[in-house]
Design a protein that fits this description.
single chain; alpha+beta; Penicillin-binding protein 2a (Domain 2); Beta-lactamase; 4 domains; 21 helices; 32% helix; serine-type D-Ala-D-Ala carboxypeptidase activity; serine-type D-Ala-D-Ala carboxypeptidase
Length: 743
């Protein structure tokens, strides 16, 4: 009995205990059912969140164009490869949608992704073992081109998929890279605490105009299943992205490409420390071309020697190009008589001031006129004008009137102004001929617009307009901005004549800057380079050689500054040693002569000194075969893309071109010509005329093309071209020959 009582008591306790648990759980379930909450968390909201996918809809970054509407930067679609390894994804399907054979998949993908087969296989097997849904393959499987994607897709490998991604692409490579800059995909933290990929400007115009170019991302959310497939009623919510605005530059693609090619030639031949060049329209202040060496390819900005745009960011002692402003100040002040004479060689105002010497070792040229002193680039003449004729205080006022003491406020990042050293008497003398004081090339160009433009000084600029990428509406447009008038029209005309005498006068230092068809005026410069240990570097090569010139001199339409720092002046085959002006003049003459003709500026010389130019006839609507024959007979290289009537060309009626120039004619039914051996510039011109999507690999001349010659092409087709420098091919042949000899 005692035992039964105890048993019944314990059983009762257990019953009460389990009933209590049951009631508690039941009450909890009833509470959850009634309120729909657990620990203040709404189950409905939680479930909705779990089954709702939310993604960013990236805005398309605005494009950057040149002044003629040629694309310089855009978002190029690329592809990221990934593999689905979850076997459940293929349930109830006739064909598998997951990686069924990892070994075969790794074997087929390895050569196309340039990866080890074992690496791919390891990633696939690890994903399967860890029950992942999908796996990725690192950087080798990202930014795949359309061509590469098509090659992989043709393998028809189960489970291999692609996701489209945008990367910033620069179709012209190194072209104007220090103006355009570059943008890269960076990780950005989003509002949910996660990360998203965003293309952001890092340097140049991409950085300067990043806010306008970026636009505003949109968003999409919908309900989905475990495999991210939309439900039948997904309750989709979409906020459309706002694409970025387009930026049009004042840069002219043809003149810029001409400048790039010429700078590359000089860089390879003379191996200088630095080259800077800028071309402007002196009537408007528009920069039509600007480049430096070293430069970089924004598609692959690695091992960059120089991030700075030296034209606007690197002040240096300019040398004798400053003399044009010294003479302008003297003329404007009314104290200049070109026929007055002075004794050249050396000049010392008093015993406390270090004497100034002319550039020929202080020997001078005896007693000469001030006009001749300008032609010969006399330091003594410049010093005497500033010290005796104008007066140091008044001369400083003119330097400030030319705004040589401040930034130009050009619409480019990282502009740095030079410094006028004017504290000690010696500095007041040396500033007059460009020593001691520092300036940037763009500061000098801005000041020189006053000489080229009737005394009116214009602000330089590179952004032409901002355009809404969707509507085409012009949101903002720039126009010429006169920022000062340091000299009168009469003074500017007198200085132009002096500049002409430097190039065309009997005693001028700029004779090698003459053009065939246009009269040039300008000022040479040979600036010493400060020695970190004190004083200046010595030796023929240790200078910055420069020229600031304009043409046609009676009414300048283009103005150009070129500087070459420390070129390697190796002896020529005949034993002569080149001067530092040779690389400078090579750049100036090539760009200015061809640039003026391209702009259809009428030559101001009656004779072209043996060069017979060809005038382009009417082309559009004419039979391509007939025009090809006509132009070929005149000595031009002609390429016809297709047959029938001409619809487009890289030249227009009335253009004046040189013999052997390359003329491209596109017809109504275009076909791809053979472009092996073409320059990048010619290849891009063709692609632009045919409206192809172009991708380039390497630098130099075309060695492969993915569209076979003779194949019909249409707007939007993809053209991939590989380029190599001639010495690379030669080097490859030599290496192969060496290997054969060794074997």
């Amino acid at each position: 009995m005692r035992k039964n009582k105890t048993t019944h008591f314990m059983a009762g306790i257990l019953i009460i205990f389990f009933v209590g648990i049951f009631l508690t759980l039941t009450g909890r379930f009833l509470y959850i059912q009634a309120t729909g909450e657990i620990n203040d968390v709404s189950l409905e909201e939680w479930a909705d969140k779990k089954r709702t996918a939310s993604y960013t809809l990236p805005a398309e970054r605005g494009k950057i164009y040149d002044s003629n509407g040629m694309t310089l930067a855009y978002d190029r679609p690329t592809y990221r490869l990934y593999a689905i390894v979850d076997e459940a994804y293929s349930e109830d399907l006739e064909e598998p949608k997951h990686v069924k054979d990892p070994e075969k998949t790794a074997e087929m993908l390895a050569p196309l992704l340039d990866m080890e087969e074992s690496d791919i296989l390891k990633r696939l097997k690890t994903g399967i073992e860890e029950d992942r849904f999908q796996v990725e393959f690192g950087t080798n499987a990202r930014e795949l081109s359309q061509q590469k994607k098509d090659e992989i897709a043709a393998l028809d490998l189960p489970g291999i998929n692609f996701e489209e991604e945008a990367v910033r692409f620069y179709p012209n490579g190194m072209f104007a890279s220090q103006i355009i800059g570059f943008a890269r995909e960076l990780e950005q933290e989003n509002e949910n605490g996660g990360t998203t990929q965003e293309i952001k400007g890092i340097a140049g115009m991409e950085n300067q105009m990043n806010a306008l170019l970026s636009g505003k991302d949109g968003r999409i959310s919908y309900q989905r299943d475990n495999y991210n497939t939309k439900l039948l009623h997904p309750e989709e919510v979409v906020t459309e992205p706002e694409d970025g605005d387009d930026v049009y530059l004042t840069i002219d693609q043809k003149i810029q490409m001409l400048l790039e090619d010429t700078l590359t030639q000089v860089d390879e031949e003379y191996n200088p420390e630095r080259i800077s060049a800028v071309v402007m329209d002196p009537k408007t202040g528009e920069v039509v071309a600007m480049s430096n060496r070293p430069s970089y390819n924004p598609n692959n900005p690695e091992d960059v020697e120089n991030w700075y745009n030296d034209v606007v960011s690197t002040p240096f002692e300019p040398g004798s190009t400053v003399k044009m402003f010294t003479w302008a100040a003297a003329i404007e002040e009314g104290v200049y008589n070109g026929n007055d004479t002075f004794k050249s060689g050396s000049y010392q105002p008093n015993e406390q001031i270090k004497p100034v010497h002319d550039h020929n070792g202080g020997e001078g040229w005896g007693t000469i006129t001030y006009d001749e002193g300008f032609q010969r680039s006399s330091n003594v003449a410049a010093s005497k004008l500033a010290w005796e004729k104008i007066g140091p205080d008044k001369y400083l006022e003119y330097l400030k009137a030319f705004q040589l003491d401040q930034k130009t406020d050009i619409d480019l990042p990282n502009e740095t102004a030079g410094e006028i050293l004017y504290k000690w008497p010696a500095e007041k003398l040396t500033t007059a001929f460009g020593q001691g004081t520092t300036l940037t090339p763009i500061q000098q160009m801005k000041a020189a617009t006053a000489i080229a433009n009737d005394g009116k000084m214009l602000q330089p600029y590179v952004i032409d307009k901002i355009v809404d990428s969707n509507s085409g509406e012009i949101l903002k447009e720039k126009s010429p901005n006169v920022v000062g008038q340091p000299i009168s029209k009469d003074t500017s005309e007198q200085v132009l004549k002096l500049l002409e005498s430097v190039v065309n006068g009997e005693k001028g230092t700029g004779k090698m800057y003459k053009l065939d068809d246009y009269t040039v005026g300008g000022k040479t410069g040979t600036a010493q380079i400060p020695n970190p240990e004190g004083g200046y570097l010595t030796g023929n090569e240790n200078h910055i050689f420069s020229f600031l010139g304009m043409a046609p001199i009676d009414d300048p339409q283009l103005m150009m500054y070129v500087s070459v720092k420390q070129p390697k002046l190796e002896p020529k085959e005949d034993g002569t040693i080149p001067t530092g002006s040779e690389p400078v003049s090579f750049i100036f003459k090539n760009v200015m002569e061809n640039g003026l003709h391209y702009l259809n500026i009428n030559p101001d010389k009656e004779k072209t000194e043996g060069v017979n130019r060809v005038e382009i006839p009417s082309l559009i609507g004419k039979n391509a075969k007939d025009i090809e024959k006509e132009l070929s007979e005149k000595g031009l290289q002609v390429t016809v893309a297709g047959k029938g009537e001409i619809t487009a060309s890289n030249v227009t009626e009335g253009d004046s071109v040189l013999p052997n120039d390359h003329i491209i004619l596109v017809t109504e039914n275009p076909k791809m010509p053979k472009i092996i051996g073409w320059s990048l510039r010619d290849a891009l011109q063709l692609a632009n005329l045919l409206e192809l999507k172009t991708e380039t690999f390497g630098n130099g001349y075309v060695v492969t093309q993915n569209i076979e010659s003779g194949k019909a092409v249409k707007k939007g087709d993809y053209l991939g071209i590989e380029l190599e420098l001639p010495n690379q091919e030669q080097q490859s042949e030599e290496e192969a020959e060496e290997e054969n000899n060794e074997s």
